[in-house]
Structures are given as structure tokens and as C-alpha cells.
Specification:
With 182 residues, the chain is mainly alpha-helical. The protein folds into two domains: 43 residues, no CATH class; 116 residues, Orthogonal Bundle (Arc Repressor Mutant, subunit A). The protein has eight helices and three strands, in the order ααααααααβββ. It has a three-stranded antiparallel β-sheet with strand order 1-3-2, covered by helices on one side. α4 packs across α5 and α4 crosses α8. The longest helix is centred in the first third of the chain and has 16 residues. It is elongated and about 75 Å long. The N and C termini lie far apart (59 Å).
Length: 182
């Protein structure tokens, strides 16, 4: 009996002390109504779903076609080959940040093909297939909070760059040989 009382008191305190957004509460009510089940019943409901993709409220999303995803994977492969995995994720995040920015085009394809932005586009290395680690890095960039290089819109390798205009921008991160800038 003591365990039941403790559980009830704990549950009551959690309910009282947990801030709830009205729109979230309404959404839960709508879900319960639509499914004719409580949220508790829904959370315990067994289904044929093998894997759930979590979407977080503040998560930025970029719509892209399968061709654009392949293009991004190939760009990451060409730009970050030999870089640590974290650097590959960061390269993908820069492209996604550009899609979200008002300073750049609105699609992955347009960002990647924008004139004089990515060396692999001009030298043809973007046409080589992406490796598994580049594909995984793009997947991670698409489904995480992008905190690694949140504000970065540029990256370069200072040892191989032929133009120095990025030197004056604020450095947000250094990963491997790449310097990320905002």
C-alpha cells in the first residue's frame, strides 16, 4: 500500500510541477480522441512498427529529394574524405544551414551548385559515389540538433584554400583540417 501511495504522490507532483504548453495538451487530447485510447494506453500499445523516428519540437528539417540527398552525400564524401566523422557531419550541417539561411538558395541542390562555392562541383569529384561514412554523416546531420556547427555557413581548409576572404569571418569550430565559419 505504501508503494501505491508513493507512486500516486509522485505522479501527482509530476503533473502539478511539469509545465505544459496548451497546444501540446490539446494535441494529446486530440490524439487520445482520434485513437479512442489514452496516451498511456497508446504508449503501451504493441504495433508492427519496428523503428520509430523521433522528431523533436525545435528540430530544423530540410525537405529534399532522394537525388538531393545523394548529391549531399557525394559532396560530403568529396569535401571531407580523410576527415574525422565529426567533420563529415559538420560539412553536411553547413549545407543544411545554408538552405535555412536567407543568404543562400532554398534547396540542397541549389546550394551545392551555387557558383564557386564547393571545389568538388567544379573539379568533378562530386560525381564519385559516397562512402558509407559520408552517408551516415548526412543521416546524422539530418536527424540531430546540428549543435556542432549551429551558426556555420562556411568551411575551408586554410592550407589548401586559394582565396583568403574567409580568414576575416568568425571561426565557430575547427575539426580536422577544416575551419568552420559563420
Amino acid at each position: 500500500m505504501r508503494k501505491v501511495i508513493t507512486l500516486l504522490v509522485t505522479s501527482f507532483l509530476l503533473i502539478i510541477l511539469t509545465p505544459v504548453d496548451a497546444s501540446a495538451a490539446e494535441t494529446e487530447e486530440e490524439i487520445e480522441k482520434d485513437n479512442k485510447l489514452s496516451m498511456h494506453q497508446l504508449s503501451n500499445h504493441k504495433s508492427n512498427v519496428e523503428e520509430l523516428e523521433m522528431i523533436y519540437i525545435d528540430e530544423a528539417t530540410v525537405d529534399m529529394t532522394n537525388n538531393e540527398r545523394d548529391l549531399l552525400e557525394r559532396l560530403v564524401h568529396a569535401e571531407a574524405k580523410g576527415e574525422p566523422y565529426e567533420g563529415k557531419v559538420a560539412v553536411a550541417v553547413v549545407v543544411l544551414n545554408r538552405v535555412d539561411s536567407n543568404q543562400f538558395p532554398d534547396t540542397v541542390s541549389e546550394v551545392i551548385h551555387q557558383d564557386k562555392q564547393f571545389t568538388p562541383v567544379s573539379n568533378g569529384k562530386i560525381n564519385k559515389p559516397a562512402g558509407d561514412s559520408s552517408k551516415e554523416a548526412v543521416e546524422e546531420a539530418l536527424h540531430t540538433d546540428r549543435s556542432l556547427v549551429t551558426e556555420s555557413l562556411y568551411f575551408y581548409n586554410p592550407k589548401t584554400a586559394t582565396s583568403r576572404w574567409l580568414d576575416d569571418k568568425v571561426t565557430t569550430e575547427v575539426i580536422g583540417k577544416h575551419v568552420f565559419k559563420d
